[in-house]
Amino acid sequence: MQKSDLVLSPGLSQGLGLALMIGTGLLCLALAYMIKTRLVRNTHDFIISNRRIGLGFGVGSIISVWTWAMAVMMSTAMTYQWGLSGLFWFVVPNGFAVMAVVPLAKILRRRMPAGYTISQFIFSRFEQSKVTSGVVTITMIFGIILEILINLKGTAVVMSTVFSIDWRLATMVTVVVVLTYSYFGGLWTSVMTGTLNTWMITVPAAIVIVAVFGMIDGGATAVFDTVDASKPSNLSIMNADAAAGFGITLAFGLLAATVADQTFWQKVWAIRPNQVARTFLWSGALFYPIPICFGMLGLVALAYGLTPADVGGDIVAVGPYIVSHIGLPLILILAYVLAILAACYSTIDGASSALSSIVAVDIIKRYAPKTSETWLFYITKLSVLIGGIVAAAIVLSGADFTSLVLTTYALKTSILLPLILAIVWPRTNTVGFVGGIVLSILIGMPLRAMYGELAGTLAIVGISGGAVIVAGLLSRRSFDMNNLGVKQAMRLEG
């Protein structure tokens, strides 16, 4: 197995790549227009789907927003960088992070059945503290922008690697395509196109990976034997360097990416109450095969002896490079690209929908409660476009994909324990909540820069959780969860 055997497959023109991107978007646009006509009549429909999402669409939509560029491309990159230890540390926390939402979701759906956003919960939980809710709102918006830009970056990487499309052009096309159809249907569009995209991710993934191994003399056995002969530790899941280098940071970040992300809380309040737990449990379990399949491409890259320089310097391009250079039929290469486009598009769509709910509930209705329904509807939809434009501007700066992911998760980790404690521990107070988040970022991020991912992540977790606990123990006040207010939600629904 020599990397000189890897040659770009013929027929992968820029025009074909652009047609694939635009064609996928047009399909989603047609679906979005149908949804808008039949299901979206006001802001409530746009941001919460009238709380009528069932098990099937719920599972499909959650898997699609969780199977973003990171899942389909970073799983390959981490396997390439760390071997099976990288795949282990990437896959195991991923599904668990989705399932971890269940106990918290059950508490809030019971205590705050007419809620819309996690920031709205914080506003009520801390007795209408605008400081506390403002910190959470800013954190949520920042996280959503980062989610959008990471998936824009993922699309740019795959299209530039497979079709030689300039990554800047790929970024701009993705922004225009996804935000156009997201603008029409809101959460209903995200849910239905996301379910369609889940099928576009899972089925091609399995077929393409089998075909890749079929192109190699000796198949999977030859790949594993070659990797073992080159570096046996790449076939071990017990590599401590992988855990310290990215695994622990990623594990906490993944938990934060579900527990502290409006993309998921929006669905908690949109899914029918009796289906919430089942939806998140099934979503977490059914997610696992996806990164495992894509991760195998990392072992193939190791077997061929690829270096980062061979794929343009960014190791997330390893998967697209293997698929487009190993000699697969054109139809299978296109199926792989469609799977990644589906993953990126659906996550950008879901994040945009989450952003619209934050703008409507936590900004407009909180600070300008007399805004008319007509203006609220237009402002909410406009926020989708603004979020995409901001994210695209950041992507065009040329930031590294892996660094974006790990930095995003490090920042999100700062809110993980304060938010969980706010839900389950009545003595959590404003000083501890805000202080924990702010101090963990101010102290933890510099430590991360100086001493690495592991030290920085543990510092962020320890400081954020410790501040909440200390402040709570020093105070004698407890919050009664039965007092959660839902006046904002009632105004929107009414």
UniProtKB/TrEMBL annotation:
Pfam families: SSF. The keyword Cytoplasm does not apply. One of its GO terms (molecular function) is spermidine transmembrane transporter activity. It is a multi-pass membrane protein. InterPro entries: Na/Glc_symporter_sf, Na/solute_symporter, Sodium:Solute_Symporter. Keywords: Membrane, Transmembrane, Transmembrane helix, Transport. GO terms for cellular component: plasma membrane. PROSITE patterns: NA_SOLUT_SYMP_3. Its main location: membrane. The chain crosses the membrane at residues 12-35, 55-75, 87-108, 129-150, 165-184, 196-216, 236-259, 280-306, 326-348, 375-395, 401-424, 431-449, 455-474. It comes from the Bacteria. It is found in: Membrane. Belongs to the sodium:solute symporter (SSF) (TC 2.A.21) family. This is Sodium:solute symporter. It comes from Chelatococcus reniformis.
